[in-house]
Design brief:
about 300 residues; alpha+beta; Muramoyl-pentapeptide Carboxypeptidase, domain 2; 6-stranded antiparallel beta sheet; 4-stranded antiparallel beta sheet; 12 helices; 12 strands
C-alpha cells in the first residue's frame, strides 16, 4: 500500500510495491494505454520510460540495500544507508549536489551484453559522476569500505572486494572453470593471468571521479603478455593519434566465454567502452538490468 507521510506532498513506496508498478509499466509499454493512477506520479516526467527503467534497474540490482523510495515535491528520492539520494535524469545526488545537477553526468549508459562486434560509439570525456550514491551504498571512506570487504580466491589468486560482489564473483569463477573444461582458449587465459588487481583507492586518470576499484567493485585481470595488442586507450593514444579507430582485432581481450561469465553475474567489461580498458571488469548490475528493461525493449518499442 502507498503510505502518505506527515507531509501531504510526500508519497512513500516500499521497494516491493514499486517493483510491481515498474514491471507493470514495462509490460504496458507494449501498447496498453491505461496504467495505475499512482504509478503515473513516477512516470509523468518521462514519456519514454527511461526514468522508470533506471529506477527499476537500481531496485533490481540493490533492492536489499535501498530502504525506501519516495516522491517529495516531484523529486524521486531513494533512501540508501540512511541517506536521501535524489534521482535527477539518471544522476544520483545528495541534496547539496541537487542544486548543481547540471554539473554532473548520469551514472547510466548504454551497454550491450554479448560478443563485441564493432568499435563502441564516441561518448563525452571526462564524465563528471557524483559519488553520492556509491558513498551511501558502499561507504564514504576507505576505512568503512575496507571493513565491509573480504578476501576471496579467484582463479588461483586472492582479491579484496566489497561484500556485495563476493557471491557474484564466486559464480563468475565457477562459470569460467566450467568453460575451461571444454575450451583450450579459456584454459590458456587462466594459465596466463599474471596478477589480479582489486581494491585500490584512486581516481580515474584525467578525471576527479573515484574509480570503482576504490569501492572494491572492480578487477583488473593482467596477463603475462598482451602479445603486442592494445589494452588501454590512454596508452594507445601516445602511439596512435586515431587510437579510437584501432580495430578490435588489434585490441587485447579475454575470451568471449570469460566476458560472458562476468556479464551474467552483474559485471561490465571495460573493453566495450569507447575509452577502452580491456583488462577491467566492474560490478554494475544496474547497467545490465537497464539493458534488459530499456535498451533492448523500450527502444525497440519507441521505434515501432
Amino acid at each position: 500500500m502507498i503510505i502518505l507521510g506527515k507531509n501531504p506532498g510526500t508519497r512513500y513506496f516500499t521497494p516491493g510495491l514499486l517493483k510491481i508498478y515498474l514491471i507493470i509499466y514495462l509490460i504496458l509499454l507494449s501498447g496498453v494505454n491505461a496504467f495505475p493512477t499512482d504509478f503515473a506520479v513516477l512516470r509523468k516526467r518521462s514519456k519514454s520510460g527511461r526514468e522508470t527503467a533506471e529506477i527499476y534497474a537500481l531496485l533490481k540490482a540493490y533492492g536489499d540495500l535501498i530502504e525506501r523510495v519516495k516522491i517529495v515535491d516531484d523529486e524521486i528520492i531513494l533512501t540508501v544507508g540512511g541517506k536521501d539520494i535524489y534521482y535527477k535524469d539518471g544522476k544520483m545526488l545528495s541534496k547539496d549536489n541537487l542544486a548543481h545537477h547540471a554539473d554532473f553526468n548520469s551514472i547510466f549508459y548504454q551497454y550491450r551484453p554479448g560478443p563485441l562486434k564493432e568499435i563502441p560509439s564516441p561518448v563525452e570525456f571526462p564524465a563528471h559522476r557524483a559519488s553520492d550514491f556509491l558513498d551511501a551504498l558502499i561507504g564514504p571512506t576507505e576505512g568503512v569500505i575496507r571493513a565491509s570487504s573480504r578476501w576471496v580466491p579467484f582463479l588461483g589468486r586472492r582479491v579484496f572486494i566489497h561484500r556485495i560482489c563476493v557471491e557474484p564473483l564466486k559464480k563468475v569463477e565457477a562459470r569460467i572453470q566450467e568453460c575451461a573444461g571444454s575450451s583450450i582458449e579459456v584454459q590458456e587465459f587462466i594459465s596466463q593471468i599474471y596478477i589480479v588487481y582489486s581494491m585500490k583507492r584512486k581516481t580515474i586518470a584525467g578525471t576527479d571521479n573515484l574509480s570503482y576499484h576504490s569501492y572494491g567493485l572492480a578487477l583488473d585481470l593482467i596477463p603475462k603478455s598482451y602479445n603486442g595488442k592494445n589494452v588501454y586507450w590512454r596508452w594507445s593514444s601516445v602511439l596512435y593519434p586515431d587510437w579510437e579507430n584501432i580495430p578490435l582485432s588489434r585490441r587485447w581481450h579475454p575470451p568471449d566465454e570469460v566476458i560472458q561469465a562476468f556479464e551474467e553475474n552483474g559485471f561490465v567489461w571495460g573493453g566495450k567502452w569507447y575509452y577502452f580498458d580491456t583488462v577491467h571488469f566492474e560490478y554494475r548490475p544496474e547497467i545490465l538490468h537497464l539493458s534488459e528493461t530499456y535498451f533492448d525493449f523500450a527502444l525497440t518499442y519507441e521505434k515501432n
